[in-house]
Amino acid sequence: MPFYRQVGKIPRKRHTVFRKADGSLHREQVMGTKGFSGAQSILYHYHMPTEMVRAEVERSIRMDFEEETALRHRHFRTDQHEQTGDAVAGREFVLGNEDLLLGVVNPTEKMDYYYRNSDGDELLFVHRGTGQLETIFGNLSYGPGDYLVIPVGTIYRVLPDPGEAKFLVIETNSWITTPKRYRNEFGQLLEHSPFCERDIYGPVEVHPRTERGEFEVKTKSRGMIHSHIMAHHPLDVVGWDGYLYPWKFNIGDFEPITGRVHMPPPIHQTFEGNNFVVCSFVPRLYDYHPDAIPAPYAHSNVDSDEVLYYVEGNFMSRKGISEGSITLHPSGIPHGPHPGKAEASIGKKETLELAVMVDTFRPLRVVKKACTWEDPDYMRSWLEQPMDHAGKLSP
């Protein structure tokens, strides 16, 4: 996490006596990463965080991926997924590999349980809808354009407001942080970073729940969802401090970097994790060299797969996509602007596109169920010469 935060009541020194009003001790929990060498926070509970009544395996969550197919460009229209549910059980994944899973969810129902991902951090991008992210560290409100970063092991639930809602979901097996090249040796975001600490929001207060009873926390770990029944309310934290906590950043606060000629995708980078990066394409001025071609040049992803999630606007290098589209341009073959898009971009002053890009440095596989949303003609959308009814190029 970029900076230190303190919320609620904590003792003056860590690992020292901190008593409740009745004289009994608050229970201290160090929650950290990388074996006490990474980011961490210290939480103070009203009850013991280890109190558990029952533990059961609920279900397997191992993905059913399609068999290896011909290498090609892919396009999935995720707005065809109309099923609603809560923010966890309703997730439908499209792509995945050893490092992450990427999918969508239409979270219109409130979670009647709490959840934690014990495998890695989660990133939720709010495409549509508003609501509350209720966590052990405190609450965060959310709205369209918000990235919600939820650290590994965080107990939370999503409480959406009534109405239409959609998230892009990225579940990782590692961490999510700001790009290293935008931070100095002290962890502070540098002057040339496209965003700064003022744009990052974390919880500002806790609302400890001290009641006893049976409360369910569903835990993702080791390819399974485990049901843990606690003997007290899981959100019993009276205070905490540290560098590990959920936070939000709105894509509208990303300040684009521009140049005289077309700038490469790393200028859009917003987050990084183990073997992947996340980028934000936002409204921006085009290149200002008098002979500039603002549309991107064709390029080969020689060591990464490129995924784009289209949020809104007219994406300047693409045809045939819509809000909620996900495209996969795999490593090993080139991709670039659709026919006519480079020519059409010349002389234009700005673009109003909004999209989230994920580049992975290990190949992605397609989840079988997502194939029902696939546009089978996308691979051929770069053809400048039409095909006849026999599937051959017309003379």
Automatic annotation (TrEMBL):
Homogentisate binds at residue 335. InterPro entries: HgmA_N, Homogentis_dOase, RmlC-like_jellyroll, RmlC_Cupin_sf. Its cofactor is Fe cation. Keywords: Dioxygenase, Iron, Metal-binding, Oxidoreductase. Gene3D superfamilies: Jelly Rolls. GO terms for molecular function: homogentisate 1,2-dioxygenase activity; metal ion binding. Residues 107-250 form the Homogentisate 1,2-dioxygenase N-terminal domain. It comes from the Bacteria. GO terms for cellular component: cytoplasm. One of its GO terms (biological process) is L-phenylalanine catabolic process. Fe cation binds at residues 299, 305, 335. The active site is at residue 262. Belongs to the homogentisate dioxygenase family. PANTHER family: HOMOGENTISATE 1,2-DIOXYGENASE (PTHR11056). This is Homogentisate 1,2-dioxygenase.
